[in-house]
Write a structure and sequence with these properties.
This protein has one domain (5-223). The chain starts with a strand and ends in a 7-residue tail after the last helix. The protein is mainly alpha-helical. It has a two-stranded antiparallel sheet with strand order 1-2. Helix content is 67%, strand content 2%. It has seven helices and two strands; from the N terminus they run E-H-H-H-H-E-H-H-H. Helix 3 (78-91) packs across helix 4.
Length: 230
């Protein structure tokens, strides 16, 4: 089994990935604001299709390099689930997709971008896919909020937190059946992240507490967003 590869924080590759992700996201949002609704719809379908095809091609890429393994390659890490959902949200925008991606997908993707761990190694495509998919997870709810005017509803933070608990139970059971470590519920990730405190199972309690804090902070930030005058 291939060893996970870490991208060193503040390395040249780390800075390139962060800067390109920010620039492209700003460009897409600014473009979407300025084009008419019919062309905006085409842009959204393109972005959504891109996100979904990216995940499909990643699976093919791992199979082609004989890296695919049922214990590590299914898209049932949080960011894998959120990446597919981001693609769906661009094509079929809905309030429930917006809330999940904004409140739990975005914090997870942000931490992943700041402390990158490539579980299947660092081929050129896997590095590209890592940054593109995690950027897309953050971009999707921002797009829905800034361009389409989606807003957080009351108690959405609580709904998302409850959904996360159900997701943790389902993924934990999958890990038990497969002998896997999806969502890092069986063993802590390798990256040096301040959210990871202690060994198993104590770091999971930290995930829960800090996850709840992140959900509520992102909820308050999205609640403060104002409509764009256009």
């Amino acid at each position: 089994m291939i060893e996970p590869e870490l991208i060193k924080i503040f390395s040249t590759l780390w800075w390139i990935g962060i800067i390109i992700s920010i620039v492209i996201s700003l460009f897409i949002i600014q473009l979407a604001i300025r084009i008419p609704p019919d062309k905006r719809r085409i842009l959204m379908i393109f972005l959504g299709t891109f996100m979904i095809v990216l995940e499909i091609f990643q699976q093919y890429h791992m199979l082609d390099l004989q890296l695919w393994n049922i214990k590590t390659s299914l898209p049932i890490h949080l960011c894998g689930i959120a990446g597919i959902l981001a693609g769906i949200a661009f094509i079929i925008p809905q309030q429930k997709y917006f809330e999940f991606l904004a409140l739990i997908g975005s914090p997870g993707a942000l931490h992943a971008l700041l402390t990158p761990q490539l579980n299947h190694g660092g081929t050129s495509f896997l590095i590209f896919e890592y940054y593109a998919s995690h950027t897309g997870i953050i971009l999707a709810p921002l797009f829905l909020a800034i361009v389409l005017g989606y807003r957080m509803q009351e108690k959405s933070w609580l709904n998302v937190f409850i959904i996360c608990q159900i997701l943790l139970i389902c993924i934990g059971f999958s890990n038990y059946l497969l002998g896997a470590n999806y969502m890092y519920l069986a063993d802590r990730p390798l990256v040096n992240n301040p959210m990871i405190v202690g060994e198993w199972p104590w770091y999971i309690l930290g995930f829960e507490i800090l996850g709840f804090i992140h959900i509520y902070i992102f909820y308050r930030c999205y609640r403060m967003m104002k409509p764009i005058p256009y």
